[in-house]
Amino acid sequence: MSLDDGSGLIFPQNFLWGTATATTQVEGHIENEWTDFVAQDGSTCRIACDNYHRYPEDIDWMSKLGTNAYRFGIEWSRLQTRPFGELNRKELARYVDMIDGLRGAGIRPMVVLHHFSNPLWIHAQGGWTTRATVAAFTDYVTKLVMVLKDKVDLWNTFNEPDTYASLAYVLGGFPPRENWQLIKFRKIIQNMASAHEEAGHIIKHAGSPLRPMQVGIAKNWTFFHAFKKLSPWDRLIAFACHSTFNKFVLRSFLGGARREASTFLGLNYYGRVRFHHFDAMIPASGTPSRRLKDFGFVCDDMVERYPQGLGYVLNYLHHKHRLPIYITEHGAASKDEAFREADLISYLKVLHGAIQEGVDVRGFFYWSLLDNFEWQFGYAKKFGLIEVDFDDPNLARTMKPLGEVYQKICRSNACNLHETGKMP
Ligand code: FCB
What we know:
alpha/beta, TIM Barrel, globular
């Protein structure tokens, strides 16, 4: 459906327009395996955006943006300090207060249970390479869901298990910074998939008054292509990445009886990686922007933009898995706000088209609410709708131009195409 003058795209009724964050990236004051991690710019996550203390202000920002949903993490290391321990009451009360604040502001919470970080005691017992972690996670989830089942109906068990397992155990980017541990990679995915299955059933059958409880993973989908179609080696690398990160991971989480544990599929979609002479041609792996420009690539500060891919992957996932889909993350990192605006609109256009074609997409969560600690890259990647001044001891927040654009979209449940330029 389009707006009266034909210039805009209206989204389905009750569509969720949200923002997304992760504990380690915004909260600060965390004791997990990231605490001592030093990013490429020399920074740490120790204070981050201090959302730990400033969440009431951040909820006000979400209201100003006009969002009706928020996807955020609950930090396991705050709630349990040993395996099978009782949940820490003070920390739980803080999350409950935050959730009450969100609900009071008409913002629906989507809780993420695991987003790239583990408590130190999980790390010490071998992280997700051991089955013991599946049991510990299941115990944690059982206790947490008992407390929150009356307030939260949207649950994301794992955020991008593929990214976590590959960056921590294959590419050495995340703690524990191991390289080429392919057997561990497989084991981690299998253990997480089995933890997801357990957690999914716990959540679905929690006896919540907020029926139906919805649960799913957030899967990162990246397209992997060879820059030159005739280059056999680049095609082989692209094929191997696709088979491992996309196909194998989805099969592990959604194959066979395991599919019953999910009621939706979360999709984190940013773009694509093209290989040229074995190099991943993206800023995130160090390819200079000049070189990318010379090749005619359009990138943010992380990966190549590929909006049409969103349509392909949505149609593929819809027909393959027949689950409702949430876009649990999309965003662009850049200091060029006009670029980010064009990026957002180009992806929303494709999203709208896919919905028109019958793909059941129920919401879109912009990554991210705030500028934040972007893992191994530190604070230089600007993904926020709200700017955070990291030089200011008060970490002052200000609305960015893209925040204003997003506000119009959220408030009107529509995307006005007149407002935008073209992708540079
Ligand atoms: C996703 C992560 C998120 C953030 C964005 C930019 O892969 O889930 O935490 O790093 O990328």
